[in-house]
Amino acid sequence: MAGDFDLQEELKKLPDRPGVYLMHGQKDEVIYVGKAVVLKNRVRQYFQSSRGKSAKIQRMVSQITRFEYIVTDSELEALVLECNLIKEYEPRYNTMLKDGKSYPYICVTLTEDFPRIYSTRTNRSLRDQNRYFGPYTNLKAVRDTLKLLQQVYRIRTCRNLPDKPCLNYHMHLCDAPCAGKISKEEYRARVEDALLVLNGHYEKLKKSLQEEMFRASEELDFERAITLRDLIEGVTYISDQHQKITDLSGEDRDICALAFDEKDAVAVVLYVRDGKMIGRDHFHIGIAPGDERAQVVSSFLQQFYAGTPYIPREILASRLPSEEERKALEAFLSERRGSVVRILTPQRGKKEHLVEMARNNAEMILKQDREKILREEVRTKGAMKDLSEALGLYGLRRVEAYDISNISGFLSVASMIVFEDGRPKKNDYRKFRIKTVIGPDDYASMEEVLTRRLGNHQQDWTLPDLIMMDGGRGHVNVAEQVVERLGLDIPVVGMVKDDRHRTRGLYFHGEEVPMDLHGDLFALITRIQDEVHRFAIEYHRSLRSKESVHSLLDDIEGIGPKRRAALMREFGDIEAISKATVEELAKVPEINEPAAQAVYDFFRAKLAEKERPEVIE
After folding, report:
1. pLDDT band for position 491 (50/70/90)?
2. Which residue segments constitute the domains of the chain, with CATH numbers given?
3. CB–CB of 468/401 below 8 Å?
4. For position 467, what pLDDT does the model report?
Protein backbone atom coordinates (compact mmCIF):
# COMPACT_ATOMS: atom_id res chain seq x y z
CA MET A 1 0.00 0.00 0.00
CA ALA A 2 1.44 3.33 -1.11
CA GLY A 3 1.23 6.71 0.57
CA ASP A 4 -0.50 6.99 3.91
CA PHE A 5 -3.23 4.44 3.16
CA ASP A 6 -3.25 2.13 6.16
CA LEU A 7 -4.74 -1.12 4.87
CA GLN A 8 -5.52 -2.73 8.21
CA GLU A 9 -7.00 0.46 9.58
CA GLU A 10 -9.18 0.97 6.50
CA LEU A 11 -10.38 -2.64 6.58
CA LYS A 12 -11.60 -2.07 10.13
CA LYS A 13 -13.70 0.86 8.94
CA LEU A 14 -15.57 -1.10 6.26
CA PRO A 15 -19.32 -0.92 6.90
CA ASP A 16 -21.65 -3.87 7.35
CA ARG A 17 -23.78 -2.70 4.40
CA PRO A 18 -24.22 -3.36 0.66
CA GLY A 19 -22.37 -1.22 -1.83
CA VAL A 20 -19.73 -0.94 -4.54
CA TYR A 21 -15.97 -0.86 -4.03
CA LEU A 22 -13.25 0.55 -6.31
CA MET A 23 -9.68 -0.76 -6.22
CA HIS A 24 -6.94 1.71 -7.22
CA GLY A 25 -3.57 0.79 -8.78
CA GLN A 26 -0.05 2.15 -8.71
CA LYS A 27 -1.00 5.31 -10.66
CA ASP A 28 -4.21 5.73 -8.64
CA GLU A 29 -6.23 4.51 -11.61
CA VAL A 30 -9.28 2.33 -10.99
CA ILE A 31 -8.25 -1.25 -11.77
CA TYR A 32 -11.32 -3.09 -10.48
CA VAL A 33 -14.94 -2.34 -9.58
CA GLY A 34 -17.00 -4.83 -7.61
CA LYS A 35 -20.28 -5.07 -5.73
CA ALA A 36 -20.94 -6.56 -2.32
CA VAL A 37 -23.92 -7.58 -0.23
CA VAL A 38 -21.75 -6.79 2.80
CA LEU A 39 -18.77 -4.55 2.02
CA LYS A 40 -16.93 -5.51 5.19
CA ASN A 41 -16.89 -9.21 4.32
CA ARG A 42 -16.28 -8.94 0.57
CA VAL A 43 -13.41 -6.46 0.54
CA ARG A 44 -11.59 -8.20 3.39
CA GLN A 45 -11.52 -11.44 1.38
CA TYR A 46 -9.09 -9.92 -1.12
CA PHE A 47 -6.44 -9.34 1.54
CA GLN A 48 -6.69 -12.64 3.35
CA SER A 49 -4.83 -15.87 2.51
CA SER A 50 -4.21 -16.30 -1.22
CA ARG A 51 -5.30 -19.94 -1.00
CA GLY A 52 -8.09 -20.59 -3.46
CA LYS A 53 -7.60 -17.28 -5.31
CA SER A 54 -6.99 -17.33 -9.04
CA ALA A 55 -3.69 -16.06 -10.45
CA LYS A 56 -5.55 -13.10 -11.93
CA ILE A 57 -6.98 -12.04 -8.54
CA GLN A 58 -3.59 -12.48 -6.84
CA ARG A 59 -1.97 -10.32 -9.50
CA MET A 60 -4.64 -7.66 -9.09
CA VAL A 61 -4.33 -7.61 -5.30
CA SER A 62 -0.57 -7.15 -5.56
CA GLN A 63 -1.16 -3.90 -7.49
CA ILE A 64 -3.79 -2.37 -5.19
CA THR A 65 -2.59 0.80 -3.46
CA ARG A 66 -5.91 1.82 -1.94
CA PHE A 67 -9.66 1.24 -2.16
CA GLU A 68 -12.79 3.31 -1.76
CA TYR A 69 -16.47 2.44 -1.63
CA ILE A 70 -19.99 3.81 -2.05
CA VAL A 71 -22.71 2.41 0.21
CA THR A 72 -26.16 1.64 -1.21
CA ASP A 73 -29.46 0.56 0.30
CA SER A 74 -29.68 -2.80 -1.46
CA GLU A 75 -27.73 -5.35 -3.46
CA LEU A 76 -29.83 -4.48 -6.50
CA GLU A 77 -28.72 -0.84 -6.36
CA ALA A 78 -25.14 -2.03 -6.00
CA LEU A 79 -25.55 -4.13 -9.16
CA VAL A 80 -26.70 -1.17 -11.24
CA LEU A 81 -24.06 1.17 -9.81
CA GLU A 82 -21.35 -1.41 -10.47
CA CYS A 83 -22.43 -1.59 -14.12
CA ASN A 84 -22.35 2.22 -14.47
CA LEU A 85 -18.89 2.54 -12.88
CA ILE A 86 -17.40 -0.24 -15.02
CA LYS A 87 -18.59 1.56 -18.16
CA GLU A 88 -17.18 4.83 -16.81
CA TYR A 89 -13.70 3.63 -15.74
CA GLU A 90 -13.21 0.48 -17.89
CA PRO A 91 -11.00 -1.19 -15.22
CA ARG A 92 -8.57 -3.66 -16.73
CA TYR A 93 -9.40 -6.43 -14.25
CA ASN A 94 -13.12 -6.32 -15.03
CA THR A 95 -12.59 -8.11 -18.35
CA MET A 96 -15.21 -10.74 -17.52
CA LEU A 97 -17.80 -7.96 -17.32
CA LYS A 98 -16.77 -6.17 -20.50
CA ASP A 99 -18.46 -8.59 -22.87
CA GLY A 100 -20.98 -6.19 -24.32
CA LYS A 101 -23.73 -7.59 -22.10
CA SER A 102 -26.75 -5.32 -22.04
CA TYR A 103 -29.42 -5.06 -19.39
CA PRO A 104 -33.13 -5.34 -20.22
CA TYR A 105 -35.51 -2.42 -20.47
CA ILE A 106 -39.30 -2.34 -20.53
CA CYS A 107 -40.74 -0.52 -23.55
CA VAL A 108 -44.25 0.91 -23.86
CA THR A 109 -45.07 1.58 -27.53
CA LEU A 110 -46.95 4.85 -27.15
CA THR A 111 -46.65 5.48 -30.90
CA GLU A 112 -49.18 2.69 -31.58
CA ASP A 113 -52.96 3.07 -31.36
CA PHE A 114 -53.11 0.12 -28.96
CA PRO A 115 -49.69 0.15 -27.21
CA ARG A 116 -47.75 -2.97 -26.29
CA ILE A 117 -45.50 -3.48 -23.25
CA TYR A 118 -42.50 -5.73 -23.80
CA SER A 119 -38.87 -6.24 -22.79
CA THR A 120 -35.96 -5.16 -25.00
CA ARG A 121 -32.18 -4.91 -24.79
CA THR A 122 -32.04 -1.59 -26.67
CA ASN A 123 -33.06 1.82 -25.36
CA ARG A 124 -34.12 4.01 -28.29
CA SER A 125 -35.79 6.72 -26.21
CA LEU A 126 -33.80 9.43 -28.00
CA ARG A 127 -34.92 8.20 -31.44
CA ASP A 128 -38.60 7.37 -31.02
CA GLN A 129 -41.57 8.53 -28.98
CA ASN A 130 -41.96 5.35 -26.95
CA ARG A 131 -41.33 5.12 -23.19
CA TYR A 132 -38.46 3.06 -21.80
CA PHE A 133 -37.97 1.93 -18.20
CA GLY A 134 -34.75 0.46 -16.81
CA PRO A 135 -32.17 -0.84 -17.19
CA TYR A 136 -33.01 -3.71 -14.84
CA THR A 137 -30.47 -6.15 -13.50
CA ASN A 138 -33.01 -8.80 -12.55
CA LEU A 139 -34.53 -10.42 -15.65
CA LYS A 140 -37.01 -12.33 -13.50
CA ALA A 141 -38.30 -9.05 -12.10
CA VAL A 142 -38.83 -7.78 -15.66
CA ARG A 143 -40.74 -10.92 -16.64
CA ASP A 144 -42.81 -10.79 -13.46
CA THR A 145 -43.63 -7.14 -14.12
CA LEU A 146 -44.77 -7.86 -17.68
CA LYS A 147 -46.83 -10.82 -16.51
CA LEU A 148 -48.42 -8.73 -13.77
CA LEU A 149 -49.32 -5.86 -16.13
CA GLN A 150 -50.82 -8.29 -18.61
CA GLN A 151 -52.92 -10.00 -15.96
CA VAL A 152 -54.15 -6.76 -14.39
CA TYR A 153 -54.54 -4.45 -17.40
CA ARG A 154 -54.89 -7.03 -20.22
CA ILE A 155 -52.31 -5.35 -22.44
CA ARG A 156 -51.81 -7.02 -25.82
CA THR A 157 -48.53 -8.84 -26.54
CA CYS A 158 -48.83 -9.44 -30.32
CA ARG A 159 -46.46 -7.45 -32.55
CA ASN A 160 -49.17 -6.89 -35.20
CA LEU A 161 -52.89 -6.85 -34.57
CA PRO A 162 -54.36 -10.16 -35.85
CA ASP A 163 -57.59 -10.48 -37.83
CA LYS A 164 -59.41 -12.20 -34.98
CA PRO A 165 -59.01 -12.71 -31.20
CA CYS A 166 -56.13 -14.98 -30.22
CA LEU A 167 -55.74 -17.40 -27.30
CA ASN A 168 -54.91 -14.57 -24.86
CA TYR A 169 -58.45 -13.22 -25.29
CA HIS A 170 -59.98 -16.56 -24.34
CA MET A 171 -57.59 -16.78 -21.34
CA HIS A 172 -58.75 -13.31 -20.17
CA LEU A 173 -55.26 -11.85 -20.70
CA CYS A 174 -56.30 -9.47 -23.48
CA ASP A 175 -59.55 -7.72 -24.41
CA ALA A 176 -58.98 -8.12 -28.18
CA PRO A 177 -58.58 -4.58 -29.50
CA CYS A 178 -58.02 -6.33 -32.85
CA ALA A 179 -61.71 -7.29 -32.91
CA GLY A 180 -62.97 -3.97 -31.57
CA LYS A 181 -63.98 -5.44 -28.21
CA ILE A 182 -62.42 -2.50 -26.34
CA SER A 183 -62.35 1.16 -27.34
CA LYS A 184 -59.12 3.03 -27.95
CA GLU A 185 -59.93 5.42 -25.08
CA GLU A 186 -60.54 2.67 -22.53
CA TYR A 187 -57.42 0.79 -23.65
CA ARG A 188 -55.31 3.96 -23.38
CA ALA A 189 -56.61 4.54 -19.84
CA ARG A 190 -55.33 1.09 -18.87
CA VAL A 191 -51.95 1.87 -20.43
CA GLU A 192 -51.76 5.09 -18.40
CA ASP A 193 -52.39 3.07 -15.21
CA ALA A 194 -49.64 0.64 -16.27
CA LEU A 195 -47.27 3.59 -16.76
CA LEU A 196 -47.96 4.70 -13.19
CA VAL A 197 -46.92 1.27 -11.96
CA LEU A 198 -43.74 1.34 -14.07
CA ASN A 199 -42.95 4.77 -12.62
CA GLY A 200 -43.05 3.29 -9.12
CA HIS A 201 -46.58 4.27 -8.03
CA TYR A 202 -47.75 0.93 -6.70
CA GLU A 203 -50.06 1.90 -3.84
CA LYS A 204 -53.12 2.62 -6.00
CA LEU A 205 -52.81 -0.76 -7.72
CA LYS A 206 -52.26 -2.64 -4.44
CA LYS A 207 -55.26 -0.96 -2.83
CA SER A 208 -57.47 -1.79 -5.81
CA LEU A 209 -56.35 -5.43 -5.84
CA GLN A 210 -56.87 -5.77 -2.08
CA GLU A 211 -60.42 -4.41 -2.30
CA GLU A 212 -61.19 -6.82 -5.15
CA MET A 213 -59.67 -9.71 -3.16
CA PHE A 214 -61.86 -8.94 -0.13
CA ARG A 215 -64.96 -8.82 -2.35
CA ALA A 216 -64.05 -12.18 -3.87
CA SER A 217 -63.64 -13.67 -0.39
CA GLU A 218 -67.00 -12.32 0.75
CA GLU A 219 -68.59 -13.86 -2.34
CA LEU A 220 -66.85 -17.18 -1.51
CA ASP A 221 -64.94 -17.02 -4.80
CA PHE A 222 -61.78 -18.31 -3.14
CA GLU A 223 -60.04 -19.25 -6.38
CA ARG A 224 -60.30 -15.66 -7.58
CA ALA A 225 -59.19 -14.40 -4.14
CA ILE A 226 -56.08 -16.59 -4.25
CA THR A 227 -55.25 -15.29 -7.74
CA LEU A 228 -55.59 -11.71 -6.52
CA ARG A 229 -53.48 -12.47 -3.44
CA ASP A 230 -50.71 -13.76 -5.71
CA LEU A 231 -50.97 -10.60 -7.82
CA ILE A 232 -50.62 -8.44 -4.69
CA GLU A 233 -47.51 -10.38 -3.68
CA GLY A 234 -46.14 -9.79 -7.18
CA VAL A 235 -46.76 -6.05 -6.91
CA THR A 236 -45.02 -5.99 -3.50
CA TYR A 237 -42.00 -7.86 -4.85
CA ILE A 238 -41.68 -5.60 -7.89
CA SER A 239 -42.06 -2.43 -5.82
CA ASP A 240 -39.22 -3.65 -3.59
CA GLN A 241 -37.04 -3.98 -6.68
CA HIS A 242 -37.62 -0.40 -7.81
CA GLN A 243 -34.22 1.04 -8.68
CA LYS A 244 -32.88 4.50 -7.88
CA ILE A 245 -29.27 4.22 -9.09
CA THR A 246 -30.44 4.55 -12.69
CA ASP A 247 -32.75 7.50 -13.15
CA LEU A 248 -35.43 6.85 -15.75
CA SER A 249 -35.51 10.44 -16.99
CA GLY A 250 -32.08 10.08 -18.58
CA GLU A 251 -31.05 13.58 -17.47
CA ASP A 252 -27.90 14.99 -15.92
CA ARG A 253 -28.00 16.11 -12.30
CA ASP A 254 -25.71 16.41 -9.28
CA ILE A 255 -26.68 15.22 -5.81
CA CYS A 256 -24.99 17.15 -2.98
CA ALA A 257 -25.20 16.27 0.70
CA LEU A 258 -23.24 17.49 3.72
CA ALA A 259 -22.59 15.92 7.09
CA PHE A 260 -21.56 18.07 10.08
CA ASP A 261 -19.98 17.91 13.48
CA GLU A 262 -18.72 20.69 15.76
CA LYS A 263 -15.57 21.57 13.80
CA ASP A 264 -15.78 19.92 10.40
CA ALA A 265 -18.10 19.06 7.56
CA VAL A 266 -17.85 16.66 4.63
CA ALA A 267 -19.63 17.25 1.35
CA VAL A 268 -20.36 14.37 -1.03
CA VAL A 269 -21.32 15.02 -4.66
CA LEU A 270 -22.82 12.15 -6.68
CA TYR A 271 -22.71 12.61 -10.45
CA VAL A 272 -25.64 11.41 -12.60
CA ARG A 273 -25.00 11.63 -16.32
CA ASP A 274 -27.47 10.44 -18.97
CA GLY A 275 -29.57 9.14 -16.10
CA LYS A 276 -26.82 6.93 -14.66
CA MET A 277 -24.79 7.47 -11.53
CA ILE A 278 -21.15 7.37 -12.63
CA GLY A 279 -19.21 8.31 -9.50
CA ARG A 280 -18.70 10.64 -6.57
CA ASP A 281 -16.35 13.17 -5.04
CA HIS A 282 -16.03 14.20 -1.41
CA PHE A 283 -14.64 17.38 0.11
CA HIS A 284 -13.54 18.33 3.61
CA ILE A 285 -14.83 21.70 4.84
CA GLY A 286 -13.55 23.57 7.85
CA ILE A 287 -16.28 25.38 9.73
CA ALA A 288 -16.08 28.01 12.45
CA PRO A 289 -18.09 27.96 15.69
CA GLY A 290 -21.50 29.48 15.13
CA ASP A 291 -21.58 28.87 11.34
CA GLU A 292 -25.13 28.11 10.28
CA ARG A 293 -25.41 24.87 8.35
CA ALA A 294 -27.55 26.39 5.61
CA GLN A 295 -24.84 29.02 5.08
CA VAL A 296 -22.17 26.32 4.86
CA VAL A 297 -24.23 24.58 2.17
CA SER A 298 -24.61 27.85 0.27
CA SER A 299 -20.87 28.57 0.45
CA PHE A 300 -19.98 25.07 -0.71
CA LEU A 301 -22.33 25.16 -3.70
CA GLN A 302 -21.06 28.59 -4.73
CA GLN A 303 -17.38 27.63 -4.48
CA PHE A 304 -17.82 24.20 -6.06
CA TYR A 305 -19.65 25.46 -9.15
CA ALA A 306 -17.84 28.79 -9.51
CA GLY A 307 -15.03 27.28 -11.60
CA THR A 308 -16.87 24.30 -13.09
CA PRO A 309 -17.56 24.48 -16.84
CA TYR A 310 -20.49 22.07 -16.78
CA ILE A 311 -23.44 22.78 -14.54
CA PRO A 312 -26.39 20.37 -14.68
CA ARG A 313 -29.92 21.63 -14.98
CA GLU A 314 -30.85 20.25 -11.59
CA ILE A 315 -28.94 20.08 -8.30
CA LEU A 316 -30.41 18.05 -5.46
CA ALA A 317 -29.19 19.19 -2.03
CA SER A 318 -29.56 17.65 1.42
CA ARG A 319 -30.63 21.00 2.83
CA LEU A 320 -31.27 24.32 1.16
CA PRO A 321 -29.82 27.69 2.05
CA SER A 322 -32.30 30.41 2.90
CA GLU A 323 -34.91 31.09 0.21
CA GLU A 324 -33.24 34.39 -0.64
CA GLU A 325 -29.81 32.84 -1.01
CA ARG A 326 -31.20 29.89 -2.94
CA LYS A 327 -32.77 32.20 -5.52
CA ALA A 328 -29.55 34.20 -5.80
CA LEU A 329 -27.50 31.02 -6.25
CA GLU A 330 -29.94 29.69 -8.85
CA ALA A 331 -29.69 32.97 -10.76
CA PHE A 332 -25.88 32.83 -10.64
CA LEU A 333 -25.74 29.23 -11.87
CA SER A 334 -28.44 29.81 -14.50
CA GLU A 335 -26.44 32.68 -15.95
CA ARG A 336 -23.30 30.55 -16.11
CA ARG A 337 -25.14 27.59 -17.66
CA GLY A 338 -27.14 29.69 -20.10
CA SER A 339 -30.44 28.11 -19.05
CA VAL A 340 -32.47 27.65 -15.89
CA VAL A 341 -30.82 25.75 -13.01
CA ARG A 342 -32.88 24.55 -10.07
CA ILE A 343 -31.64 23.67 -6.58
CA LEU A 344 -34.04 21.33 -4.83
CA THR A 345 -34.37 19.39 -1.60
CA PRO A 346 -36.72 16.51 -2.46
CA GLN A 347 -38.94 15.21 0.34
CA ARG A 348 -39.96 11.83 -1.09
CA GLY A 349 -39.51 9.46 -3.99
CA LYS A 350 -36.43 8.41 -5.91
CA LYS A 351 -34.72 11.80 -5.74
CA GLU A 352 -35.03 11.88 -1.95
CA HIS A 353 -33.48 8.40 -1.82
CA LEU A 354 -30.52 9.62 -3.89
CA VAL A 355 -29.97 12.54 -1.50
CA GLU A 356 -30.20 10.14 1.43
CA MET A 357 -27.54 7.94 -0.18
CA ALA A 358 -25.23 10.94 -0.55
CA ARG A 359 -25.89 11.95 3.07
CA ASN A 360 -25.14 8.43 4.33
CA ASN A 361 -21.82 8.44 2.49
CA ALA A 362 -20.96 11.90 3.82
CA GLU A 363 -21.71 10.87 7.41
CA MET A 364 -19.63 7.73 7.06
CA ILE A 365 -16.68 9.64 5.65
CA LEU A 366 -16.94 12.29 8.36
CA LYS A 367 -17.02 9.64 11.06
CA GLN A 368 -14.34 7.30 9.77
CA ASP A 369 -12.01 9.28 7.53
CA ARG A 370 -11.65 12.71 9.12
CA GLU A 371 -7.96 12.33 9.94
CA LYS A 372 -7.24 10.69 6.59
CA ILE A 373 -8.92 13.56 4.71
CA LEU A 374 -6.96 16.12 6.68
CA ARG A 375 -3.67 14.30 5.99
CA GLU A 376 -4.51 14.04 2.29
CA GLU A 377 -5.38 17.72 2.16
CA VAL A 378 -2.09 18.66 3.81
CA ARG A 379 -0.20 16.46 1.33
CA THR A 380 -1.99 17.69 -1.81
CA LYS A 381 -1.96 21.35 -0.81
CA GLY A 382 1.60 20.85 0.37
CA ALA A 383 2.60 19.61 -3.09
CA MET A 384 0.99 22.68 -4.65
CA LYS A 385 2.91 24.88 -2.22
CA ASP A 386 6.14 23.08 -3.22
CA LEU A 387 5.27 23.68 -6.88
CA SER A 388 4.72 27.37 -6.22
CA GLU A 389 8.09 27.66 -4.48
CA ALA A 390 9.93 25.63 -7.13
CA LEU A 391 8.63 27.87 -9.93
CA GLY A 392 8.79 31.12 -7.97
CA LEU A 393 5.03 31.56 -8.41
CA TYR A 394 2.66 32.08 -5.52
CA GLY A 395 -1.00 31.42 -4.96
CA LEU A 396 -1.26 28.48 -7.37
CA ARG A 397 -4.56 26.60 -6.99
CA ARG A 398 -5.89 25.63 -10.41
CA VAL A 399 -3.67 23.78 -12.88
CA GLU A 400 -4.72 22.75 -16.39
CA ALA A 401 -2.72 20.11 -18.29
CA TYR A 402 -2.94 19.32 -22.02
CA ASP A 403 -1.92 16.42 -24.27
CA ILE A 404 -2.36 15.48 -27.96
CA SER A 405 -3.11 11.94 -29.15
CA ASN A 406 -3.08 10.62 -32.73
CA ILE A 407 -1.86 7.73 -34.85
CA SER A 408 0.11 9.13 -37.78
CA GLY A 409 -2.13 12.17 -37.71
CA PHE A 410 -5.34 10.14 -37.90
CA LEU A 411 -8.16 11.39 -35.67
CA SER A 412 -6.05 13.89 -33.75
CA VAL A 413 -7.59 14.72 -30.38
CA ALA A 414 -6.56 16.66 -27.29
CA SER A 415 -7.34 16.29 -23.63
CA MET A 416 -7.51 18.90 -20.89
CA ILE A 417 -7.51 17.84 -17.25
CA VAL A 418 -7.79 20.05 -14.19
CA PHE A 419 -6.20 19.77 -10.74
CA GLU A 420 -7.25 22.12 -7.95
CA ASP A 421 -5.33 22.20 -4.68
CA GLY A 422 -3.45 19.12 -5.82
CA ARG A 423 -6.54 17.01 -6.51
CA PRO A 424 -8.19 16.13 -9.85
CA LYS A 425 -11.38 18.02 -10.62
CA LYS A 426 -12.89 15.60 -13.10
CA ASN A 427 -16.04 17.61 -13.63
CA ASP A 428 -13.85 20.17 -15.43
CA TYR A 429 -12.06 17.72 -17.75
CA ARG A 430 -12.54 18.49 -21.45
CA LYS A 431 -11.95 16.71 -24.75
CA PHE A 432 -11.17 18.39 -28.07
CA ARG A 433 -11.32 16.94 -31.56
CA ILE A 434 -8.83 18.73 -33.81
CA LYS A 435 -10.69 20.57 -36.57
CA THR A 436 -8.21 22.66 -38.57
CA VAL A 437 -4.98 20.61 -38.63
CA ILE A 438 -4.36 17.85 -41.15
CA GLY A 439 -1.61 15.36 -40.44
CA PRO A 440 0.56 14.66 -37.38
CA ASP A 441 1.37 18.23 -36.31
CA ASP A 442 1.27 18.31 -32.50
CA TYR A 443 2.34 21.94 -32.26
CA ALA A 444 -0.38 23.23 -34.63
CA SER A 445 -2.94 20.99 -32.93
CA MET A 446 -2.00 22.34 -29.52
CA GLU A 447 -2.20 25.90 -30.80
CA GLU A 448 -5.76 25.26 -32.02
CA VAL A 449 -6.85 23.69 -28.73
CA LEU A 450 -5.41 26.40 -26.50
CA THR A 451 -6.89 29.12 -28.72
CA ARG A 452 -10.33 27.50 -28.50
CA ARG A 453 -10.04 27.02 -24.73
CA LEU A 454 -8.48 30.32 -23.67
CA GLY A 455 -10.14 32.47 -26.35
CA ASN A 456 -13.61 31.70 -24.95
CA HIS A 457 -12.79 32.11 -21.27
CA GLN A 458 -15.15 35.04 -20.70
CA GLN A 459 -18.17 32.89 -21.60
CA ASP A 460 -16.65 29.64 -20.46
CA TRP A 461 -15.00 29.00 -17.10
CA THR A 462 -12.29 30.09 -14.69
CA LEU A 463 -8.81 30.63 -16.13
CA PRO A 464 -6.00 28.46 -14.75
CA ASP A 465 -3.23 29.74 -12.51
CA LEU A 466 -0.78 27.51 -14.41
CA ILE A 467 -0.78 25.63 -17.73
CA MET A 468 1.14 22.34 -17.89
CA MET A 469 2.08 20.81 -21.25
CA ASP A 470 2.84 17.12 -21.78
CA GLY A 471 6.14 17.87 -23.49
CA GLY A 472 9.22 20.04 -23.42
CA ARG A 473 10.46 23.25 -25.00
CA GLY A 474 8.46 23.09 -28.26
CA HIS A 475 5.09 22.59 -26.60
CA VAL A 476 5.82 25.26 -23.99
CA ASN A 477 6.76 27.78 -26.70
CA VAL A 478 3.50 27.17 -28.59
CA ALA A 479 1.45 27.62 -25.42
CA GLU A 480 3.28 30.80 -24.44
CA GLN A 481 2.66 32.29 -27.89
CA VAL A 482 -1.07 31.61 -27.64
CA VAL A 483 -1.24 33.08 -24.13
CA GLU A 484 0.63 36.20 -25.26
CA ARG A 485 -1.48 36.62 -28.41
CA LEU A 486 -4.68 36.51 -26.34
CA GLY A 487 -3.34 39.11 -23.92
CA LEU A 488 -3.38 36.77 -20.94
CA ASP A 489 -0.90 36.40 -18.10
CA ILE A 490 -0.69 32.65 -17.41
CA PRO A 491 2.65 30.89 -16.80
CA VAL A 492 3.36 27.73 -18.81
CA VAL A 493 5.46 24.77 -17.73
CA GLY A 494 6.41 21.56 -19.56
CA MET A 495 6.32 18.06 -18.07
CA VAL A 496 9.42 16.26 -19.38
CA LYS A 497 9.89 12.48 -19.64
CA ASP A 498 13.10 10.46 -19.82
CA ASP A 499 14.15 7.96 -22.50
CA ARG A 500 11.98 5.29 -20.85
CA HIS A 501 8.91 7.53 -21.05
CA ARG A 502 8.88 8.13 -17.30
CA THR A 503 8.29 11.52 -15.70
CA ARG A 504 11.63 13.28 -15.23
CA GLY A 505 10.83 16.82 -14.19
CA LEU A 506 9.58 20.26 -15.23
CA TYR A 507 10.73 22.66 -17.97
CA PHE A 508 10.22 26.31 -17.04
CA HIS A 509 11.80 29.53 -18.38
CA GLY A 510 14.24 27.64 -20.61
CA GLU A 511 15.61 25.20 -18.04
CA GLU A 512 14.71 22.10 -16.07
CA VAL A 513 13.54 22.61 -12.51
CA PRO A 514 15.30 20.37 -9.96
CA MET A 515 13.08 18.46 -7.55
CA ASP A 516 13.14 15.61 -5.06
CA LEU A 517 12.25 12.43 -6.97
CA HIS A 518 10.75 10.95 -3.81
CA GLY A 519 8.75 13.97 -2.65
CA ASP A 520 5.08 14.90 -2.85
CA LEU A 521 5.69 17.39 -5.69
CA PHE A 522 7.27 14.78 -7.97
CA ALA A 523 4.40 12.37 -7.20
CA LEU A 524 1.90 15.10 -8.10
CA ILE A 525 3.62 15.91 -11.42
CA THR A 526 3.75 12.21 -12.31
CA ARG A 527 0.09 11.79 -11.56
CA ILE A 528 -0.90 14.84 -13.64
CA GLN A 529 1.18 13.68 -16.61
CA ASP A 530 -0.17 10.14 -16.46
CA GLU A 531 -3.74 11.36 -16.08
CA VAL A 532 -3.71 13.77 -19.03
CA HIS A 533 -2.12 11.09 -21.22
CA ARG A 534 -4.69 8.49 -20.12
CA PHE A 535 -7.58 10.85 -20.79
CA ALA A 536 -6.36 11.65 -24.32
CA ILE A 537 -5.76 7.99 -25.20
CA GLU A 538 -9.20 7.02 -23.85
CA TYR A 539 -10.90 9.64 -26.03
CA HIS A 540 -8.90 8.65 -29.08
CA ARG A 541 -9.80 4.99 -28.56
CA SER A 542 -13.52 5.80 -28.36
CA LEU A 543 -13.39 7.80 -31.61
CA ARG A 544 -11.50 5.01 -33.38
CA SER A 545 -14.26 2.64 -32.31
CA LYS A 546 -16.94 4.92 -33.74
CA GLU A 547 -15.04 5.28 -36.99
CA SER A 548 -14.85 1.50 -37.24
CA VAL A 549 -18.64 1.30 -36.94
CA HIS A 550 -19.15 3.86 -39.70
CA SER A 551 -16.65 2.22 -42.02
CA LEU A 552 -18.60 -1.05 -41.82
CA LEU A 553 -21.66 0.72 -43.25
CA ASP A 554 -19.48 2.22 -45.97
CA ASP A 555 -18.84 -1.32 -47.24
CA ILE A 556 -22.51 -1.69 -48.25
CA GLU A 557 -23.23 -0.91 -51.88
CA GLY A 558 -25.59 2.05 -52.24
CA ILE A 559 -25.03 3.39 -48.72
CA GLY A 560 -23.31 6.77 -48.80
CA PRO A 561 -22.67 9.34 -46.09
CA LYS A 562 -26.29 10.63 -45.98
CA ARG A 563 -27.86 7.21 -45.75
CA ARG A 564 -25.23 6.08 -43.26
CA ALA A 565 -26.00 9.09 -41.05
CA ALA A 566 -29.74 8.45 -41.37
CA LEU A 567 -29.34 4.82 -40.27
CA MET A 568 -27.20 5.77 -37.29
CA ARG A 569 -29.62 8.52 -36.34
CA GLU A 570 -32.61 6.17 -36.48
CA PHE A 571 -31.11 3.03 -34.88
CA GLY A 572 -28.31 4.45 -32.76
CA ASP A 573 -25.72 1.70 -33.18
CA ILE A 574 -24.51 -0.97 -35.58
CA GLU A 575 -26.02 -3.81 -33.55
CA ALA A 576 -29.54 -2.42 -33.88
CA ILE A 577 -29.07 -1.90 -37.63
CA SER A 578 -27.81 -5.45 -38.09
CA LYS A 579 -30.92 -6.88 -36.39
CA ALA A 580 -33.47 -4.74 -38.24
CA THR A 581 -35.82 -6.25 -40.82
CA VAL A 582 -36.13 -4.96 -44.39
CA GLU A 583 -39.45 -3.34 -43.46
CA GLU A 584 -37.93 -1.54 -40.45
CA LEU A 585 -34.97 -0.33 -42.53
CA ALA A 586 -37.24 0.93 -45.30
CA LYS A 587 -39.15 3.11 -42.82
CA VAL A 588 -36.10 5.40 -42.59
CA PRO A 589 -36.95 8.35 -44.89
CA GLU A 590 -33.62 8.32 -46.75
CA ILE A 591 -33.61 4.53 -47.28
CA ASN A 592 -35.56 3.10 -50.24
CA GLU A 593 -36.46 -0.58 -50.57
CA PRO A 594 -33.37 -1.63 -52.63
CA ALA A 595 -31.07 0.09 -50.13
CA ALA A 596 -32.90 -1.55 -47.21
CA GLN A 597 -32.54 -4.94 -48.89
CA ALA A 598 -28.82 -4.30 -49.46
CA VAL A 599 -28.27 -3.49 -45.77
CA TYR A 600 -30.28 -6.52 -44.69
CA ASP A 601 -28.42 -8.88 -47.05
CA PHE A 602 -25.04 -7.47 -46.01
CA PHE A 603 -25.53 -8.22 -42.33
CA ARG A 604 -27.11 -11.62 -42.98
CA ALA A 605 -24.04 -12.51 -45.03
CA LYS A 606 -21.81 -11.32 -42.18
CA LEU A 607 -23.80 -13.44 -39.73
CA ALA A 608 -23.55 -16.50 -41.96
CA GLU A 609 -19.82 -15.98 -42.32
CA LYS A 610 -19.43 -15.67 -38.55
CA GLU A 611 -21.40 -18.87 -37.91
CA ARG A 612 -19.65 -20.89 -40.64
CA PRO A 613 -17.58 -23.74 -39.10
CA GLU A 614 -13.85 -23.19 -39.13
CA VAL A 615 -11.97 -25.49 -41.52
CA ILE A 616 -8.88 -26.99 -39.90
CA GLU A 617 -6.24 -28.01 -42.43
Report:
1. very high
2. 7-97 (3.40.1440.10), 105-240 (no CATH), 253-368 (3.30.420), 379-545 (3.30.420.340), 555-611 (1.10.150.20)
3. yes
4. 92
